[in-house]
Structures are given as structure tokens and as C-alpha cells.
Design goal:
Blueprint lengths: L6 E7 L5 H11 L3 E4 H10 L6 H9 L6 H18 L12 E5 L5 H10 L5 E6 L2 H15 L6 H24 L3 E5 L4 H16 L1
Parallel strand pairs: 1-3, 1-4, 2-3, 4-5
Bound molecules: P1-(adenosine-5'-P5-(uridine-5')pentaphosphate and magnesium ion.
Organism: Fibroporia radiculosa
Subcellular location: Cytoplasm; Nucleus
Subunit structure: Monomer.
């Protein structure tokens, strides 16, 4: 994608930090197309005829990172679709091409490949809070989410993979001065206000 036509913000943070919630809020404020890598993988897992369904299910349950070729292909397809068709479902109407990419890249290899072959991100929003808080949120959500990884065993594995594989990605972008760190411990509304001001700064 042409970086002069497309703006990408990566949204990172631990499992349950509130990435999806905050992206949904930012879509209301700015003309963003919100793409959650996890949601795209879950949709592909459930798509009839997908050759990756079983593989994705196993990786997600174990909290492991699905091989990057699959995820990057899904993201690229979704970006292309959004640029050509718009995303009326999210109220995304014009084609300036502003993307919030949620929960990606969570491993160094994905970060390098996306930067080199898809496009460069403008900013990384990093939502951070304690493991205790994230566990509490996910266990609560697990009562109704139907997500196969919202159980204590999977959550512990997700925390481990996050620390071992995703934190280095955040470090890497931090060294490139691309990271805006946002304390996600406060209420959804308070976190939203902070996130909103970060994006406003970027687009100023
Ligand atoms: N909540 C949110 N904010 C709150 C606040 N401020 N105060 C109180 N409660 C708050 O929020 C989680 C819950 O907390 C909700 O109930 C919310 O109301 C509440 P949410 O916004 O859903 O948090 P989020 O950070 O999006 O949590 P999520 O569980 O989606 O994070 P993960 O990063 O674990 O999940 P994701 O879907 O991104 O990935 C799932 C799996 O897919 C990965 O483990 C991996 O196996 C696979 N994957 C890949 O392999 N590759 C990828 O590139 C991406 C994913
Ligand atoms: Mg999410």
C-alpha cells in the first residue's frame, strides 16, 4: 500500500487490556477502519471451506501466534476490501485509508514483514495495565464471550506469549519513537479520552 494514501496505527497491549473496546470508541470519533487481527482469524476459523480453520483454532486455544503468512494475508485482504468498498458497517465512508490494526503485530517476524511488504505504521498505541486487572476482565467477559481462549488456562498462556513475544515488538517500536503508551487501568471513558487526544495529536 502507498504510505501517502494509507495511515496505519497499530493498537497493542496485553490480552484484555481494552484494545477492541478503545478501537470501537475511536471509530466513533475519527474516520477509521478498525481491523482486529484476532477477529479476522476467528472469522477465517469459522469460514466454511477454510483450509486453516483447525490450525487457527488450535493456536488460539493455546494462546500461540498463528503463522504470520495467514494473518498478514487476512489483514491485506481486509485493507484492500475496505479501500475499494468502504466499510459501511462501521460507518467508514471515505477512502483516506485510516486503519486501526488491533492486536497486531505481536511477534517480531510479523512486524518486520508487515513494515517491509504491506506498509509502515505511523504510530503504535500501547494500552497497558496489570495482569491482575486483565485476568479479571477476561474472566468476566468469558462468562458470555464464547471465546475458546477466555478461560484461566488459555489466559495464562496468552500472558506468557505476550511477555515473551509481543513485548519485544513494543520495545522495537519504542526505540523508533513510535509508541504512545496509555494507562488502561482507568474507566473505559477515561482511557478513551486519553486515546482520543493521542490520535488528535497525530492528525494535527
Ligand atoms: N474492559 C475494557 N476496557 C475496560 C476498562 N477500562 N475498565 C473495565 N473493563 C474494561 O476488553 C476485554 C474486556 O474488558 C471486555 O469485557 C471489556 O468490556 C472490558 P477488550 O476491549 O476486548 O480487550 P482486548 O485488549 O481487545 O482483549 P482481547 O482478549 O481481544 O485481546 P487479545 O490480544 O488476547 O486477543 P486477540 O483477539 O487480539 O487475539 C486472540 C488470539 O488470536 C491470540 O492469542 C493469538 O492466538 C491469535 N492471534 C494471532 O495468532 N496473531 C495475531 O496477529 C493476532 C491474534
Ligand atoms: Mg480484542
Amino acid at each position: 500500500f502507498d504510505n501517502s494514501k494509507v495511515t496505519v496505527i497499530f493498537v497493542l497491549g496485553g490480552p484484555g487490556a481494552g484494545k477492541g473496546t478503545q478501537c470501537a470508541n475511536l471509530v466513533q470519533d475519527f474516520d477509521f477502519c478498525h481491523l482486529s487481527a484476532g477477529d479476522l482469524l476467528r472469522a477465517e476459523q469459522n469460514r466454511e471451506g477454510s483450509q486453516y480453520g483447525e490450525m487457527i483454532r488450535t493456536f488460539i486455544r493455546e494462546g500461540q501466534i498463528v503463522p504470520m503468512e495467514v494473518t498478514i494475508k487476512l489483514l491485506e485482504n481486509a485493507m484492500r476490501a475496505a479501500l475499494t468498498e468502504g466499510r459501511a458497517d462501521e460507518g467508514w465512508t471515505d477512502s483516506r485509508g485510516r486503519f486501526l490494526i488491533d492486536g497486531f503485530p505481536r511477534k517480531m517476524d510479523q512486524a518486520m514483514k508487515f513494515d517491509e511488504e504491506v506498509c509502515q505504521s505511523s504510530l503504535v498505541m500501547f494500552f497497558t495495565t496489570t495482569e491482575e486487572e486483565m485476568l479479571k476482565r477476561l474472566m468476566e467477559r468469558g462468562k458470555t464471550s464464547g471465546r475458546e481462549d477466555d478461560n484461566e488456562e488459555s489466559i495464562k498462556k496468552r500472558f506468557r506469549v505476550y511477555k515473551e513475544q509481543t513485548m519485544p515488538v513494543i520495545e522495537y517500536y519504542n526505540n523508533a519513537h513510535k509508541v504512545a503508551t496509555i494507562d488502561a487501568t482507568a474507566t473505559i471513558e477515561e482511557v478513551h479520552e486519553k486515546a482520543k487526544s493521542v490520535v488528535t495529536q497525530l492528525f494535527k
